[in-house]
Structures are given as structure tokens and as C-alpha cells.
Task: structure prediction
Amino acid sequence: MTDSPRILIVEDEAAIAELIAVNLRHAGYDSVLAADSRAAQRQVDARLPDAILLDWMLPGEPGITLARRWRANPRTRDIPILMLTARVEESDRVAGLDAGADDYIVKPFSPKELLARVRAVLRRRAPHATAEAVAVGALMLDPAAHRVTWNGAVVKLGPTEFRLLHHLLLAPDRVHSRAVLLDKVWGDHVFIEERTVDVHIKRLRENLREVMGEIGTAAIETVRGEGYRVNIGALSAP
Ligand code: CA
Result:
């Protein structure tokens, strides 16, 4: 698995889908294609994308039905959705936004506009897919540099531990359940066992400990029966 944000393109016109995929790839995104609503649902079930570009007019169920369903499901409700539509009437745009789309793009659109809008929805709804640094106390994670530091000293982490720590630091006051972590960090809570999370949390604590000592072990708390949480107190202590 790469660290590039992964975009699901739901579009039945192959030429448009391919054009979008090429532009996303050049901008550093991974993409997967689905030509109808069933294929789209299969992709989402298999692995959560970081954002979805969703055509309005599809064979079978229309995009708006998919958007409504994904917004109603706790597993998928936070995924940014950008509707692609040839419709320009205001009432249709409002219907798309009411169904839960974050934004819409009217066809034909320029690749530059598409990328700008993708970046904007990711920044708003999926900050883990952007490159902004996050910090709690003296522990800082910089996705652009792919680096974690404690008081400036570099902490070496494997790719999964890096993503796991990134996700935890983005909402440090929250308890993260194993199922949600599997979805957000591994992209799949269906086929991967929950104890996989425990294995990587253990490794993450060991990696942190090498540089941070005892604070490293305490940095991620286990909340019994619920999941894991960042120990803000331990990390912020002088
Ligand atoms: Ca279409």
C-alpha cells in the first residue's frame, strides 16, 4: 500500500474516467475506477477510498442514490464526495448537495479545476490525506517529509506505524476503536483481524520508546474495551 491518497472514480464513460485517472496520477494520487453503482459499492466495501468522484448519470442506480447511501452509513459517511454532473440547473445542484455531496463539478471541466476541488475537499474532510504537519506536545509528525520527531530527535517508524500514529494524532482527544482504525489506516475492517491493530500499536510504542524512553511507551493509551487514544498529558508534560 502506498501513502498516496486513493480516489475512487465512479464514471461510466471510459474516456472521461481515464482522463481523470491520468490527471490524478500526475498529481500524485492513486485511483480506482468503477463504471456503475454495483462496481462502486464493491470497491468501497473492499477498501475505503480517501475521496470519491461520483458521476450523476450512471447505468443502474444514479450517483445521487449512492451518495445518500454512503452518507447514511457510519463507515462511509466521512468520505469526501465530489459529484460530476452535466446538469447545470440549480435545483439539481441543490439535490446533489442535499444528498451529501461535498461539492460538484459541472462537465465539461478542466483537469486543473478538478484537481483544485479534490485538494479542497481532502483538506476539509480528510486531513490525513493532506501533507500538513501535526503535533501533540513535543511529538511532531510531518507527512510531507515523512518524518516523526520528539523534541527534534527523529523517531524511525515503519509505514503502517507512521499512518497509525498520523491518524491518532489528528484527533488526539478521541478514543479510536480497532474497527475504525482498520478502516482509516488499513482501508478495510472487513477482511483484516482486529488484533492486527494491537500488533502494530505494540510496535509503534516500541519505536517511540527507542527515542522517547518511558514517555514513548505511555504515549498511546489503551482504553479497555474501546480502543486507543493519544496520551496528551504524557506528551505535553514539561
Ligand atoms: Ca455518465
In short: The chain has a mean pLDDT of 88. The pocket of calcium ion is lined by residues 12-13, 55, 57-58 (CB under 6 Å). The chain has ten helices and eleven strands.
